[in-house]
TrEMBL record:
It catalyses: Transfers a segment of a (1->4)-alpha-D-glucan to a new position in an acceptor, which may be glucose or a (1->4)-alpha-D-glucan. The keyword Glycosyltransferase applies. InterPro entries: GH, Glyco_hydro_77. This is 4-alpha-glucanotransferase. It holds the Pfam family Glyco_hydro_77. The keyword Iron-sulfur does not apply. Belongs to the disproportionating enzyme family. Its EC number is 2.4.1.25. Keywords: Carbohydrate metabolism, Glycosyltransferase, Transferase.
Length: 164
């Protein structure tokens, strides 16, 4: 007795081939959920600075491919700083700006931040607001001083940064 494939068998074979291709394209990946604010920092709250880069290096070394974060919108104390009750769906949280990276860019000095450094510990939003209230305006002022100066009628900032 000879087996003759039925049309249904042919469809099953096609599906198995399709599944193999799908499986290769849609591999499973591992990762972690870690709020940015939970990273260690001497400024009372985790930020997108050196510790974030270190964490990404750790994920890479551990062969993890995904870092899932909580929403990063601006929060306030009235909602217990819940990332799910952000004040804006479009704005970022200024507390996540790294003072260390601003220092590396030359927008802040060691002296600007020395008095605000603490031992990493629990997140302290009240202290983090005080610290960012000091370094953000200082860094912004120094950043503006380092931008290229544009001559009056010289085409504005877009002209300065455009390619020749």
């Amino acid at each position: 007795m000879t087996y003759t494939p039925k049309p249904e068998d042919k469809r099953l074979e096609e599906r198995q081939t399709d599944f193999s291709a799908w499986k290769n394209e849609h591999r499973r990946y591992g990762g972690l959920l870690l709020p940015v604010t939970s990273l260690p920092s001497p400024y009372c709250i985790g930020d997108l600075g050196p510790e974030a880069y270190r964490f990404i290096d750790f994920l890479h070394a551990a062969r993890q491919r995904i870092w899932q974060v909580l929403p990063v919108g601006p929060t306030d104390g009235g909602q217990s700083h819940s990332p799910y009750a952000a004040l804006s769906g479009m704005a970022g949280n200024s507390l996540l700006i790294s003072p260390d990276l601003m220092r590396e860019e030359g927008w802040l000095t060691n002296g600007d931040l020395k008095e605000y450094e603490r031992a990493p510990g629990n997140v302290d939003y009240a202290s983090a607001w005080i610290i960012s209230g000091h370094f953000l305006p200082t860094g912004k002022f120094r950043q503006k001083q380092k931008l290229p100066q544009v001559e009056p009628g010289g085409g504005g900032p877009a002209q300065v940064f455009s390619r020749p």
